[in-house]
Amino acid sequence: MGLSLLAYLILAVTGINLFSRRNNEHPQPNWLRTAHYTTGWVMVALVLLLLAIGIVGTLGHFGSLGHSGHLIAGCSVVVLVLLSAASSTQISPSQPWARAVHVGTNIVLLVGFTWVSLTGWQVVQKYLP
Ligand code: HEM
Ligand code: HEM
Fold this sequence. Notes:
The protein contains four helices and no strands. With 129 residues, it is mostly helical. The chain has one domain: Fumarate Reductase Cytochrome B subunit (Up-down Bundle), CATH 1.20.950.20. The chain starts with a helix and ends in a 5-residue tail after the last helix. The relative contact order is 0.12. The structure holds protoporphyrin IX containing FE (HEM) (2 copies). Residues 8, 11-12, 15-16, 18-19, 22, 33, 36-37, 40-41, 43-44, 81, 84-85, 88, 91, 99, 102-103, 106, 109 line the site of one protoporphyrin IX containing FE.
């Protein structure tokens, strides 16, 4: 989870840099765009890994899912991350809506990460001494 949040921070910094360079018509160094979307796909992989660990762990412990609001929070974050990645593949000068969807989704994702961390912290308490 810590790595996912670090990836989100790197994406925010490189994304805002891409945004301001584009708006100030400054050249966009190739490494910046590459660093951004590589970190993006790493974050997608980390979140899917957290989903898999959560589901396997819960099924192993309870034999069923849906024991707390953490399930909704976790699934919402997965949907937001996949929407962010999918919209990024559509970003082009002829599809200005894709950039708006991408940036909007990523702002909501900050709320999603906060929600899943808080609910995750709550459910983990019962496993702590
Ligand atoms: C989920 C994985 C992600 C992928 C694969 C991804 C990929 C991309 C790509 C390809 C672009 C277009 C770059 C260009 O202008 O050519 C972009 C733009 C951008 N991304 Fe992401 N991104 C991801 C997540 C994020 C996150 C989490 C944030 C913010 C927290 C973010 C913020 C931005 C911003 C601000 C822009 C610039 C939009 C502009 O130029 O107006 N991205 N992203
Ligand atoms: C993007 C991040 C995360 C995703 C996608 C995710 C996803 C999930 C899912 C889908 C479950 C099954 C819940 C159920 O069926 O009731 C689960 C269980 C669980 N998760 Fe997460 N989770 C994430 C982050 C966290 C964090 C940060 C923590 C701890 C601080 C955490 C702790 C747990 C625990 C303890 C369970 C077992 C549920 C229980 O005993 O009720 N998760 N997770």
